[in-house]
Design a protein that fits this description.
Radius of gyration: 18 Å
Structural class: alpha/beta
Distance between the termini: 48 Å
Number of helices: 10
Number of strands: 5
Shape: globular
Largest sheet: 5 strands, parallel
Helix content: 40-55%
Low-confidence stretches: 1-5
Strand content: 5-15%
Length: about 230
């Protein structure tokens, strides 16, 4: 597959596509490989042997089907994220906007979700967003997370997330992040500059030792900061 140079000589974002449907793999590969700053370094039809594939292709982003016959996307994502070194970020591919595995996939280390029938520009945007270190959580996925928490027994294990280090404004930002708001939307809601929101998000991640916004959303629900009915 051809490699495309990023602007200003930067290394292009390397993408690996893992999906058991040949047409999905071929279509996504053709689309992404044609974009400036992106290059598809490989495809695979299952999560079996995923760590070897990642080691060989060295992707920055893995587009991972959540449902595959031998090793599903959950187990494959967990294996990728737990591998030694600096693991690639994973975007889960799903057919349903309320997939029953949303929460489990985020806990496994996925940085976001994308519907397989999303418009092409959304796929390209998703890869750039996650490659830049952000997480991709649409309002639909956030609602699915809320539904998942609402369905869990009251005595179900919750994560050990202490929010004591956070200021009141940081808690406000975290609540809105957990509800699927973008930085721009949070800025409008709190009447502050978008850069101020980015600073708050960065400080929250640092104080709580979280990897990205996805983990922040999980921490917000598990700590009780955001409840399913709120």
């Amino acid at each position: 597959m051809p490699s495309h140079s990023a602007a200003d000589g930067e290394r292009p974002v390397r993408v690996l596509i893992v999906d058991d449907q040949a047409m999905i793999r071929a279509g996504f590969a053709a689309l992404l490989d044609a974009q400036p700053g992106l290059t598809v370094v490989g495809t695979a039809d299952d999560g079996l042997g995923i760590t070897d594939i990642v080691r060989r292709t060295r992707p920055d982003i893995v587009l991972m089907d959540i449902r595959m016959p031998k090793v599903n996307g959950l187990d494959a994502t967990r294996a990728v994220r737990e591998a030694p070194g600096e693991p690639p970020r994973v975007i889960m591919l799903t057919t349903f906007d309320a997939d029953e595995y949303v929460f489990a996939a985020l806990r496994a280390g996925a940085s976001g979700f994308l519907l397989k029938d999303s418009p092409p520009e959304e796929l390209v945007h998703a890869v750039h967003v996650v490659a830049a270190g952000d997480a991709l959580l649409s309002p639909k996925v956030t609602r699915s997370l809320i539904a998942d928490f609402a369905a869990r027994p009251a005595d179900a294990p919750r994560g050990d997330h202490s929010l004591t280090p956070l200021t009141e404004r940081e808690l406000d930002v975290m609540r809105l992040v957990a509800r699927g708001y973008s930085n721009g939307e949070i800025a409008q809601e709190l009447f502050v500059a978008e850069q101020t929101v980015k600073t708050h998000v960065s400080r929250i991640l640092g104080k709580l030792g979280l990897r990205d916004r996805t983990q922040m959303v999980i921490a917000a629900y598990e700590s009780g900061l955001v409840r399913a009915q709120s």
